[in-house]
Structures are given as C-alpha cells and as structure tokens.
Design brief:
Elements lengths: L2 H11 L1 H26 L11 H9 L4
Helix pairs in contact: 1-2
C-alpha cells in the first residue's frame, strides 16, 4: 500500500484531523514565504509618530 493510499484512508477516517493538519501547514508556510517578500519591498519614507503631548491634547480636546 502506497503513501497516497494511506493518506486517502486517513482523510476518510479522520477528516477533522486532516483538515487541521492542512490549516496548520498553511499557517507554517505562509509566514515563511510571505514575510521575506514583504520585507524585501522598498517602503516609503517612515513617518515619525506625533509627540505624545499632541496626542493627549487631541484626545482630551485641550489645546496648549
């Protein structure tokens, strides 16, 4: 009995476990492939965060 036959039998007997393994495989594969691709892209100039005083003033409605 080949590996594919055993795999088919496993999927028929335990479909939930097989689906979980498939989802876990995607979960391991995607970050390993997509993250380096995203990191390799040139990004626009980084915008510095606003000073904390300005953020607090904007939230509370008080002006300096």
């Amino acid at each position: 009995m080949g590996v594919m036959d055993r795999l088919k039998i496993f999927v028929v007997k335990e479909p939930v476990v097989a689906a979980s393994c498939l989802i876990a495989g995607f979960g391991l594969f995607l970050p390993a492939v997509v993250r380096p691709i995203l990191d390799s892209w040139e990004t626009a100039e980084k915008v510095p965060p606003p000073p904390l005083n300005d953020v607090v003033a904007g939230v509370t409605g008080k002006k300096n």
